[in-house]
Here is the input.
Amino acid sequence: MGRLLVLEGRGELSTAHVRLVASAVGVSERTVWNWLSVARREGRTGPRPRPRFTVTREIRELLALWGGNVSAVHRELVARAAKAPSPDPVPSLSVLHRAVVRDLSAGERAGLRSGEAGRRRHDVFGKRPPVYRNACWEGDHKRVPVRVDVEGQAVCPWVTWFIDVGTKVVVGVAVTPHEPARDAVLAALRTGISRAGPYGPFGGLPGRVRVDRGKEFLCRTVAHALGGFAVPVENLPAYTPYRKGTIEALNSAVEKMFLVSLPGYTRRARPVGVHRPDEVGDLLSFADFVEALLGWVRWWNTGHRPSGLASGLTPMAAWEADPTPVEDVSEEQLAFFALEDDGRVRKISTSGVRWRRRFYIAPWMVGHVGTRVRLRYLPHYDGQIEVFSAEHLDRHLGTAHLAEEATLEQRRELSAVREKKARALKADLKAAEKLRRTRYTATTTPDVPRPRQTVTGQQAQAEIARAKATALAARALPDLIPPRDPPAGWTRPRPASAARLHPDTVPHSPAPDDTNGTAPASQTEE
Here is the structure.
């Protein structure tokens, strides 16, 4: 219609134009002429808009309040209209449902029901373009849902690993029995960068490392370690797993393809009413679990064919087929990649090197007593240290181990004692919380709640008095009450001021004879 109006305005409109448009849109010529008449008269070129109810800002706020429940929003609107003196017309429930479906997208409706996670399920995510090997690594932590035996205790370990985005090769892995720290990140990075056995042939320096705001990945130690090789760390926004989809796919694959078959898997389907976990004796030891996990990583790199690789290649085949040169790091530079330096200069003594109020010794220290040294160590590990010359920091003297390290039996006994104390403290805190909290009876009427236990005034006063007496005893000082005078027969110490007075005016007992038979110094001076 717009084109016909333009032709009519220039005086060029003809019946042939109308006939051509009518045949193109499949209507009669009379219908097209009627459309032109309506366009001249009402100024519209489309169908007449029908009045309909639309979702307003108030409706959106009510939907957010009621968690996307349209029926609850309709009841709220009806209740408000009943209280208002001149209410606005309230749409029917079906009209409100149609308006919500028409004006709000599926993602918005899901977000109102279940939050950001529900809304994200309706988003469209792009795919990153393919890159060459070592162009980018992605790193992440994963809590392994498998209970393993660690010195008699069942724990769920954590795995920290890095994967090459271009070839899907898992380049570095580190496993910890607890939540990982920066030492796990540095250990996984070192295994990824090194290409020497048993870590090769994958590795080298990456172009950049992509992480998701984990504090262990963004700490100063990791930034300095990678910054020394000019490798930037790309910090992705929080709660955006789709921006590092390669490592997230690996986290999902390892559970579905490997962890689900291990004993102690915590997410295994069980019969109704069976909640007893596996006994510690039936679980894998930590060493066996790490060996099995590293075996699965080798299978992933050499035998698995991920769908993201072209022509059904394995990650190893894709790595070898990529002609991009690999930038290696010498083992001399990488030997102390994950070590920290406290910056202090120490000396080797006859007891070894003192660090953190403990001594570290090694056979190579014989003959080096008095040597000035600097120490480097793994983060969060104090079992051994690396000793360097204080004059030449690149000169490695050797490794020193903790002297008088506790045995395995001692450590287990110590853990048992600490657990016993922790349980006792927990019981005390639970009892104190029970005394502090007041429990009330159930009520069926809008009335003031009544406590379950009634305390008499005498009982309350007695407990308050006991608490005050305990507090005063805890605050008592040893010299709060002055000591009594000693008996008259005791020998009193000589006052310090008497030494400054004349010898004749200060009464004192005769001094004992010297071993050589000489007189006291005061008599000699006289």
Notes: Residues 408-436 form the longest helix (29 residues).
